[in-house]
Model the fold of this input.
Amino acid sequence: MTGPTLLWLALSTAVFVGANGVLKTYAVKGGLPVLLAALTLFCLGNWIMVQVMRGSGLGLAIALSAVFQLLAITAMAMVVFGERPTPLQLAGVALGVVAVALIAWPTGGKA
Done:
């Protein structure tokens, strides 16, 4: 994965984390403008993901995006919203990281 593709991935992760934060606010407080803001951010995040897919292919892009978002959103849920994952949930996060590491592991051949 190239440097620019990693930057697109980081940007998409930030946008998706923001979108999920706004969506959590909507779930707690409601409000159509809040919902529209979340949906707009999700659309922007998906457009950015297209750039990641162009640079690394569909499978790798989605796998990396999923684990980056998993880690970032779990951290946000803990820090911003005070949520506490159970040990089993944290084990699931760890397994997700291992799974994506295996998917992204360089094979030495051309994909």
